[in-house]
Amino acid sequence: MVPPNPAFRRVRVRLSLLLSLGLLTLLPWSSARDPQGLSPAKTLVGAAAGREGTRNRAAEHPVPALPPSPFTYLHGARPRPLARPDERILFRLDGTAGPQTFTLRQLQALPTVRYATDQPQLKHEGVYEGVPLRDLAALGGFAGRDVRVYASNGFVATIRAHDYLHEPIMLAYRMDGQAIPVLQKGPLTVVLPRRPARFHTPAYSAAWVWFAVRLGPVP
Ligand SMILES: Nc1nc2c(c(=O)[nH]1)N[C@H]1C(S)=C(S)[C@@H](COP(=O)(O)O)O[C@H]1N2
Ligand SMILES: [Mo]
């Protein structure tokens, strides 16, 4: 990572302080609506849980500027369509400036990758399409921090910044050219590429989060 210019760093710290004040005012809103907030988190290979207090976390972790994405995209960001009243909200991004919600069509308008990988739980080789966690984290203003993916069944997994920044781990919305049925762990499911090989070891099995509904930075 590029060492931060001290002047920019000061500006960022001030900005993050403002952001965390803003977030504090949002807290009652999010906890009231989120029955999964208390679920135990599955931690992959020693994430930084409990290393420090919860106050001013954003100020302690200024997010460095992201270098250009190293991934090959099927398409980049497209204009985000408005949610129609008949569409379901499938996903929530807990951005540092507040939550953003997405219907399937709105997710499909985000930068998208496509690759074949072996889904270890289904024992199925599928061609998956979806949004890299890196792009979602960048959209939420927390790229570079470890992230948590929350599932509709209360399951939570932590995915390390090093993994999602360098590899196109995706929130998949399509498999083999079709919407992903619930029986195949859809409609939204996290998939990891074939390489590196560690993604297909037991240490990473919790990262293949099915029924994904929410993404945010590790608090
Ligand atoms: N939504 C959701 N995703 C999840 C889990 C879960 O309980 N709920 N368990 C994780 C863990 S720890 C493992 S080992 C695998 C288990 O998948 P399986 O039950 O289909 O074998 O899914 C991962 N993804
Ligand atoms: Mo597991």
UniProtKB/TrEMBL annotation:
Residue span, Oxidoreductase molybdopterin-binding domain: 122-194
User: Where does the record place the region Disordered?
Assistant: 49-70
Q: What SUPFAM superfamilies is this protein classified in? A: Oxidoreductase molybdopterin-binding domain (SSF56524)
Top-level lineage group: Bacteria
Q: Cite a single Pfam family from the UniProt record.
A: Oxidored_molyb
Q: Which InterPro entries match?
A: OxRdtase_Mopterin-bd_dom, OxRdtase_Mopterin-bd_sf
This protein's name: Oxidoreductase molybdopterin-binding domain-containing protein
- Origin organism is Deinococcus radiopugnans ATCC 19172
